[in-house]
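#struct-help
A.M.: can someone run this one for me? Single chain, 272 residues.
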Amino acid sequence: MTRIARAGALLALAFLTALALAGPATAKQKPHGHGKGAQQRLVLPKAWSKQHKARGPKADPDHDGLVNWGEYRSHTKPKQADSDQDGTGDAHEDYDRDGLDNGSELEAGTDPGRRDTDRDGTPDGAEDADGDGLTNAAEDRTGNHPRKADSDGDGIEDGDEHAGTVAAFDGTNLTIALAVGGTLTAVVDETGLGCGDDEPYYDDEEDELEDEDLDDSSVTARLAEQGDEDDADDEEWYEDDVSGCVAEIEPGTAVREAEVEDGVFVALELVL
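D.P.: on it. Structure tokens below:
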């Protein structure tokens, strides 16, 4: 073999060796938990599991809404619903201070122990996982799902549902501070809230108004349970006392959905 050929062979061997060594090193530098991968493999460290006698990353022995993996990443105790005993359950704490509580991080597919899971410079609470116009934090406040663009499946994306919080209510005029910015003000017609009826005006099974006497201005008003996607057990407003219908509308109350026609609310769903 000539000197030039031998030199070329040595260079090729050195190049292949460098590639082989570079591969594992590059793989090790990839950020752990990037994007949706933050929860693709829920693994509990053996030492932590042994210390807390926790079995299974998806188990929730204290029934606080936070599975063991979430407890581990949130630095809470898997067998105490309120680890720091401050009156706020572990799932509703915000360990990494990103605007999204620990339990909601799991729904959004983010890491409750990392403020910016995908390391793109935007805190997890300000991300919009499903691209519906509502941030993860806004989805949480309004009872919507952070990874479902149309949480209630009505064909309208969550960001277009006029979700937000009650800013002001004088008994007639209701102002909602919209989660997407701005405000919405319209009249709440007490006669259209279904109050005073002897029978429920809202049919859970058919999702239709069942009282034909109600006109088009009637409000389909419900009290949705926080974090509950099952509309069947929502509380309908048909109390005998009209004031009972509007009593829950107070500043700070979360609004999951609102619809206005001709300056009057024709749909209103609050999250308590």
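A.M.: thanks! Strands lie at 164-169, 173-178, 183-187, 202-203, 208-209, 220-224, 235-236, 254-261, 264-271.
D.P.: also worth noting: Residues 3-28 form the longest helix (26 residues).
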